[in-house]
Design goal:
There is one protein chain. The chain has helices at about 25-45, 50-70, 115-120, 160-170, and strands at about 15-20, 75-80, 85-90, 95-100, 105-115, 125, 130-135, 140-145, 150-155. It is of the alpha+beta class. The two termini are about 35 Å apart.
Length: about 180
């Protein structure tokens, strides 16, 4: 595979990458539809029971907000690598966010087959036997091996170039104290 930063070409001061999942937009539309249904029920309801109406309205709006914001948070992930740290931001507002100093990174590996099914779905995931991950789609990813024995996996396009850039910035094998 030919990458723009392979071979003798020096890595840029800041490397950025991104992965996007367009299917999440469909889930976000479903959340917006739930909210719209709740608002419609609140404004123009023929129900005579007040409690049933309140429960329906609150349920639809709450479910819609949870689905809408939960999916929009993981429509894409941005990875930013500079001389000091790896920073991962999710969604349009960048939350959740994780910043890992390079002094905490023991190594980086390329994983060509990150699959949401192996992590329990899309999003910010933790599994005791696998570590932590930000998974927004199936495909290639970066696996950071940390000095504390944990791993952190990120799905990102051009993950092989990201691994090369991370490895070029790592200091000799001395763990951070």
């Amino acid at each position: 595979m030919d990458h723009p930063y392979s071979g003798a070409t020096p890595h840029p001061d800041v490397w950025t990458g991104r992965a996007t999942n367009r299917v999440q937009w469909l889930l976000a539309l479903f959340g917006a539809a739930c909210m719209a249904l709740g608002i419609e029920l609140a404004v123009d309801s023929a129900w005579s029971s007040g409690l049933a109406l309140v429960v329906s309205v609150v349920g639809c709006i709450a479910a819609g907000l949870m689905v809408l914001f939960g999916t929009l948070a993981f429509v894409h992930v941005d990875l930013r690598l500079d001389r000091e740290c790896v920073e991962v931001r999710c969604g349009h507002i960048g939350v959740p966010r994780r910043r890992i100093p390079l002094s905490h990174v023991a190594g980086a590996d390329f994983d060509p087959h990150v699959n949401p099914r192996h992590w329990g779905g899309w999003g910010y995931r933790w599994r005791p036997e696998k570590g932590t991950a930000v998974v927004v789609r199936r495909g290639e990813g970066v696996v950071l091996r940390l000095w504390n024995g944990h791993t952190f996996t990120i799905t990102v396009d051009n993950a092989e170039a990201a691994v090369q850039a991370i490895r070029s910035r790592l200091r000799p094998t001395t763990p951070a104290l």
